[in-house]
């Protein structure tokens, strides 16, 4: 799940605004799987010669093949692969992007833009420390690069380094638009005890800038929707989500956030309709399977088996899918509370956002091991993080401890 996603959240403004401030954090990976023979087929990928995306990729690959040491061509191809990984939810594009940057080893003498793109690929793999190091090098060369600042803030938010994220946002506000700067600051403030004020401040800033580009508008609506939901205002949250979708720029993060909202509102039929054409994304497929389960649909079993097969295929490729998603799957489809809790604990060791806290708390309750959720409870207390759903879970956990 998101990433929560948010993180995973992820922002398509400065290169898409650090995907909604990493609401779109991608799955974590382990070492790559190397087949014993070239004859072994790991997976067959769809290919359509007339597909405009495939045509664009062929042109970019051809341009790079003509000069593999051209950083501009390598960056262009790697960026396109990264964009596809975010929009389609297919992590294999990350490997393709890294291959495009393969000839450029080390960091000395490399363009700052290449360092930023490499950092984006690394954060998708949850290699946050290495990604931050690259972004710091890029910012040393170009201190006012809004893309590097946005990504640095996004990664620090996932790691609950709110002081670091605030510093990045202050720097971003000096070189970016008022709405982007306000949104960045509001995102941090909303995670540190100022949710209501942040929501009102960002709402006012949005009203002052009705003509901003679609990507920035999309991010603002999605951020406002998340804040409203945390405040317990489902009506306002839905209004913001619908405004974002009406922009016609739907992608994996927005769809996942809205689908999660609909499931919380016990409207699974709408989730099923929303995600019908998004089966390539494991994240969205899990949400659709959860909707089918809630509906008692005959598709429930088939969707669950498809997810299990994808998890197995990912293991064969040497990948480890996002622990948050797999914990949710184990909890809801396999009734494996202890297994879900193990994955949720593992996930919490890597990232600290609302959805990470939620699955940890829910798995701890289901496994009747309330103390396992203490790290999430401490995160809520120490940062004064506000969310009506998490507050209810916290109360349940405290009741179990007593």
Written description of the protein model:
Helix content is 68%, strand content 0%. The protein is mainly alpha-helical. It folds into two domains: 17-33 and 46-321, Serine Threonine Protein Phosphatase 5, Tetratricopeptide repeat; 322-402, Serine Threonine Protein Phosphatase 5, Tetratricopeptide repeat (Alpha Horseshoe). It starts with 16 loop residues before the first helix and ends with a helix.
Question: Characteristics of this structure?
Answer:
402 residues; mainly alpha; Serine Threonine Protein Phosphatase 5, Tetratricopeptide repeat; 2 domains; 68% helix; 0% strand; globular; disordered N terminus
Averaging pLDDT over every residue, what do you get?
87
Beta content comes to: under 5%
Extended strand count: 0
Which parts are unreliable, with pLDDT below 50 for 5 consecutive residues or more?
1-17, 22-45
CATH class bucket of the largest domain: Mainly Alpha
Return Rg in Å: 21 Å
């Amino acid at each position: 799940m998101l990433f929560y996603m948010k993180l995973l959240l992820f922002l398509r403004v400065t290169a898409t605004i650090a995907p909604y401030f990493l609401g779109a954090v991608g799955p974590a990976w382990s070492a790559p799987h190397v087949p014993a023979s070239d004859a072994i087929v790991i997976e067959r990928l769809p290919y359509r010669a007339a597909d405009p995306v495939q045509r664009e990729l062929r042109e970019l690959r051809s341009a790079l093949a003509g000069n593999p040491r051209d950083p501009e061509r390598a960056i262009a191809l790697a960026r396109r692969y990264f964009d596809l990984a975010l929009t389609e939810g297919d992590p294999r594009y990350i490997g393709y992007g890294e291959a495009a940057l393969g000839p450029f080893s080390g960091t000395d003498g490399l363009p700052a833009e290449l360092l930023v793109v490499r950092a984006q690929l690394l954060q998708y793999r949850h290699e946050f420390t290495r990604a931050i190091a690259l972004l710091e090098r890029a910012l040393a060369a170009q201190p006012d690069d809004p893309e590097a600042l946005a990504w640095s803030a996004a990664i620090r938010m996932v790691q609950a380094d709110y002081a670091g994220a605030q510093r990045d946002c202050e720097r971003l506000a000096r070189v970016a638009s008022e709405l982007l700067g306000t949104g960045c600051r509001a995102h941090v403030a909303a995670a540190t005890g100022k949710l209501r004020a942040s929501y009102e401040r960002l709402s006012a800033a949005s009203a002052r800038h009705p003509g901003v580009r679609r990507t920035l508008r999309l991010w603002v609506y999605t951020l406002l929707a998340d804040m409203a939901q945390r405040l317990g205002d489902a009506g306002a949250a839905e209004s913001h989500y619908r405004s974002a979708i009406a922009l016609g720029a739907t992608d994996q993060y927005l769809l996942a956030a809205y689908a999660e909202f609909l499931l919380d509102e016990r409207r699974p039929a709408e989730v099923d309709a929303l995600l019908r054409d998004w089966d390539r994304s494991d994240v969205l497929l899990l949400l659709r399977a959860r909707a089918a389960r809630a509906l008692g649909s005959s598709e429930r079993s088939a969707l669950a088996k498809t997810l299990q097969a994808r998890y197995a295929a990912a293991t064969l490729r040497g990948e480890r899918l996002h622990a948050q998603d797999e914990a949710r799957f184990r909890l809801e489809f396999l009734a494996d509370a202890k297994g879900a809790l193990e994955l949720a604990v593992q996930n919490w060791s890597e990232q600290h956002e609302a959805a990470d806290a939620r699955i940890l708390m829910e798995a701890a309750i289901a496994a009747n091991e309330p103390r396992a959720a203490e790290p999430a409870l401490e995160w809520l207390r120490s940062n004064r993080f506000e969310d009506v759903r998490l507050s209810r879970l916290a109360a349940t956990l405290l009741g179990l401890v007593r």
